[in-house]
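ok so I'm stuck.
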Amino acid sequence: LSSVTGKAAPRTAAVVLGSRSLNIASRPSDLVGGTPLLDLNPLLANHGINLEDGLQLVGKLESLGPCSSVKDRLGRSMIDEAEKQGLISPGKTVLVEPTSGNTGIALAFIARERGYRCILTMPETMSIERRMMLLALGCEVVLTPKETAVPGALAKAHEIIAELGSDGFMLQQFENPANPKIHRETTGPEIWEDTDGRIDILVSGVGTGGTVTGVSQYIKGSEEHGCSPLKPTLQTIAVEPMEQMLITHAKGGEKIGEQGPHKIQGMGAGLVPPVLDLDILDEVVPVHSEEAMKTTHELWMMGLPAGVSSGAIVNAAIQVCQRPESADKFVVAIIPSFGERYFTHPMFSEIKETAESLTKQPLPEPYDNTEYGFATPRG
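replied:
not stuck anymore, here's the structure
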């Protein structure tokens, strides 16, 4: 049994070799979860934030999952639950889902692992790396107009389901109760144990809303879901793009500036997800795409490759840490995904140009550089 959840640990094949037992996972999806925390206080110091009173910022590195995002948990949970309920069968059921990318990748690798055909619909703004990842995993990808965001992808998914009839099944990440459930059962307990219960503030982006909802329910307590209160005073802070402040509006707040498309892939889906528990949110912090990209660059410069949604979340966390009332708080920020997936994102355009403009250099003696296309032996 897991020491964290009291539930069965991921399936592994225990191979006995002499007196040693080797810990070997049976399948890729058994590697989901158990992600570490990373000290992000160096970022706070770079922003001139006083750390003398014990302020601590850490990142929960969901980017280290088997397919490099927090959605690995969601993909496994939804498929596991549907299989348990007898709703889907490998080799027969076609999984169809609208996705901004990372949920699709999670579904794709588990569908490939277990033998499901998988069709994913997504806005045309999703990066070429995500599309390639899905295609490489054997998925079928259908792009929808960027102007309609996720609602357009959802409408297309419903159309495909109608064409497939009884063979099609939509897991519905924005509504599926298995979404926050996996975070109540795994992510929340991991954060609680790894911080020794010291967490005061949770900062999380909202894509489907499952992570921020499930973790908060586990720590704050949820009678509905059988979670005894561990720290009812936990401050839950959701992050959304400043250009698309739907959650702020749903909570009664005012929108700031022009609203519309944004560049923070993985959040701001163009709707308030039904799975999101609005009442559990203490605050919503909007972050502009440009600021998110700047903070993402800071993460890369400290040696942490992360996506732009991670930059948005850490940017919001830094804002929270700058407040006088946060001087002695323990803040946990979710790092949702790995950065290599975003190289065609606008924030990397200058680096891409630099990489493409690099040219080979001549070699020293005794090499004859004319053999490698140079004009003279020395280049």
